[in-house]
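Students often ask why we bother predicting the structure of a whole assembly rather than each chain alone. The short answer is interfaces. A chain on its own may look different once its partners are present, and contacts between molecules only exist in the joint model. In this exercise we take two input lines together and write out one structure for the complete complex. Read the inputs first and try to guess which parts will touch.
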Amino acid sequence: MQTAQRTIVDFGLNKPKTVVIGALVITMILTALIMTAKIDTDPENMLPSDDPVRVLNHSIREDFGTSDIIALGIINESGVLTEDILGKTEALVEEINNIDGVVPGGVISFAAASVSSQDADAVAEAVANNPLLAGKVISPDGKGLALYIPIESKSEANGVSSDIKDLESLQRSPYKRRQ
Amino acid sequence: MAQMFEEPGRAITRNALIIALGFLPMMFASLLPYVIVAALMSSIMVLSWLVSLLLIPALIALFNREHRKEEVTA
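Now the answer. The structure tokens for the assembled complex follow.
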């Protein structure tokens, strides 16, 4: 170790220009490589992809056909059970179903049931009595709707959610946008 | 000059070695971020060791040479 250390120090003393220029070049190359770094915030990737837990989780998902879900909330302080909002939400669901990366026809929502406003209250009551749906697709106070959008792959979640935010029907009223 | 680096160099070398080796057991962690941190810290220590022993003497030699030139021309 001592001789190796001596060799290194001697090299730095004898060829200082080579060393300094080499250090600059290496620094520039590594700086350029920083651009290719990707930020990965998916906690699942904290385990290696061949980890038994991940493999089991994946196979269970395959067996049950479950996919990751993006939730979209629609809030109207004066109530969401109006023909206007339900109709627009239905159109929105239609649009979302056509987005690339969304499981086609997979959106779970109140509006997907295609109800007219007269029936809406009756359906809302039925929903409230259904333990699987109560408080899930429509809020108990009737001021919020939730859309559950299944996506084909988690890696597409960001693209799909920005596609949804860009949807024209979401830019218009009566929807209030919340980031 | 090389003699001057002998003793501090030994300290630098041992310090870098101990810390680099100390982080290596983390390579066997099951969580990937730990493994990445271990690899990063170990390589940082090796790199800083190299830079201390290679770049600093080189910079000193370089500035020293220019300093001497100035003395000669003056």
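Check your guess against this: Residues 32-73 of chain B form the longest helix (42 residues).
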